[in-house]
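Suppose you are handed only these lines of text.
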Amino acid sequence: MLILRTVQDIQSWLTFHSAKGSSIGFVPTMGALHAGHISLIDRAKRENHLTVCSIFVNPTQFNDAKDLEKYPRTLEADSLLLSNAGCDVLFYPSIAEIYPPGLAQVKVDLKGLDLVMEGAHRPGHFEGVVQVVHRLLDIVRPDRLYMGQKDFQQFTIIDHMIKELNLPVQLVVCPISREPHGLAMSSRNERLSTEGRKQAAFIYSTLSKAIDLKNTMKPEQICLQLFDELNQDPFKPEYVDIVGADDLLPIKTWTDSPVVICTAVWLEGIRLIDNIILSLAAKE
Ligand code: AMP
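From them, the structure of the protein bound to adenosine monophosphate can be written out as follows.
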C-alpha cells in the first residue's frame, strides 16, 4: 500500500490510474481504524478497481478543543490494518495540504439538516464536515464515496451536498458494524474502560426496544421512555429522536416513509452515538 501525504502526489497517482480507466472507491476517515472502517474498505474494494482511504483528523469539525486533542492517533496500526485489507493508497495529508491559504470555502444550504440532533449539540460540526468532505472529494475525485450508517446525520448531509452541488460521485452507505454485544464500533470506544465498554452495550439494547414499541406507541412517547431509561448512572443521554430518514425532522405519527431512531449518550466522559433504522410501521 502506498502512503501519500501531498495533494500533488495523490493527484499524480490518480491521473496515471484514471487514464487507464480504473474506477476509484474512496473511504474518508479520521483514523484509529476498527472493523467498521474496514467493512467500508472491503465494500469499496469489491466495487472499484482501486481503493483510497484518507486519514485526516479534521480540526474544523471539532467544537470541543479537548475532544480534538484526545482523539486517538494510531497511524502505524491503521496502516497495517489497511494494507492487510488490500487498500491501495492511504492519503495522510497535513492540515496545510487540506486547508492551504486562500482556499475558497464551499457554500451549501443544508436546509436545516445540520440544526437538529448532532447539529443542535455540536454547533459548527457539520459545516466542518461539509468543508472537509468537499475538499477531499475535490482532491480524490472518486467514482464512489463510502460512508457508514453509524453517522446517520453525516451521510444524510453529505448526500444532500452531493445533490445540491451536482457532484459526479455516487454515495454508498454501509451498515453499522457492532461489537458482539451490540455496541456500535467507534474510534472513541478505545477511550472507554474495559467495564465501560461492556456497560455501553446498554445503549444499543435500549435503542432496540423501539423496534417492538413502535407497534403500540407513538414515536414521541417512545423517545421519552427510552430517554428516561438511558438517563441512569453512569449514562447521560443528550437526545433520543425518531426522525424521518430524509429530512431528519421528528415524526409525530408512523408513516410509510423510512424512519430512524438516533441517540447520543455520554459515558465515562465520552460521547457515543448510535441509531437504528426502524422498519416501516403502520400503527398510529
Ligand atoms: P470516522 O473515522 O469516525 O470519521 O469514520 C469514518 C467512516 O467510517 C464514516 O463514514 C463512519 O460512518 C464510518 N464508520 C465509523 N464507525 C462505523 C461502524 N461501526 N460501522 C460502519 N461504519 C462506520
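What can we learn from it? Strands lie at 2-4, 24-29, 50-55, 89-91, 144-148, 170-174, 235-244, 259-267, 270-278. Residues 147 and 155 are 6 Å apart (CA to CA).
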